[in-house]
């Protein structure tokens, strides 16, 4: 069940180099004047933004969780739903965003609830495809909590589909990762009905 490659591996720190000169070049190549007032500081802003939006590569998950894993006598489903996330598709470097629903079936170990959205952010702030993002969140919880199972559903909209290509503004993409007990119909159905319940 466990993935061979640990998701907790962190890559070396981001280069301290700025991508601003390359961004200025891109602007010029697109026929813009990087020297005009509105664009003067755009390359530095893009540098900052892109470094933030890909900062998830350099985060140590253990530091994010910061010991908030507790031993308790609990073997029920824990679910955090409607977690907003924002990511970048690795094919176009355009945003995709939506909601994550994350659940696990505890095996006497629980994680502080506020940590789950933080874990989602760590993997979302990378160049991603939605399928991998879904899997990484699920595998991370599996490794941290050794639960009976994990279920993750991501509902997202992709700008690369909305603004270009097929230009389907309202089509959403749903991905799921069901590990352990969540492969069984009963558990999965319970998860799905909890996700659909609007409160
Ligand atoms: Zn794309």
Characteristic terms for this protein:
25% strand; elongated; alpha+beta; two-stranded antiparallel sheet; disordered N terminus; binds zinc ion; 35% helix; single chain
Plain-language structure description:
There is one protein chain. 26% of the residues are buried. The radius of gyration is 19 Å and the shape is elongated. Strand 2 and strand 3 form a beta hairpin. Helix 1 (20-29) packs across helix 2 (42-53) and helix 4 crosses helix 5 (130-145). It is α+β, with helices and mostly antiparallel strands. Residues 1-5 have low confidence and may be disordered. It has helices spanning 20-29, 42-53, 61-65, 115-124, 130-145, 159-162, 185-196, and strands spanning 69-71, 77-89, 95-105, 109-111, 127-128, 149-158, 173-180. The site of zinc ion has 6 residues, from loops.
Class inferred from helices and paired strands: alpha+beta
Radius of gyration: 19 Å
Number of strands: 7
Bound compounds:
zinc ion
Number of separate helices: 7
Low-confidence runs: 1-5
Order of helices and strands: HHHEEEEHEHEHEH
Beta-strand level of the residues, as a percent range?
Answer: 25-35%
- Based on CA inertia axes, which overall geometry fits? elongated
Helix content: 25-40%
First-to-last CA distance: 34 Å
Q: Tell me about the largest β-sheet.
A: 5 strands, mixed
Widest beta sheet: strand line-up: 5-2-3-6-7
Give the overall average pLDDT: 91
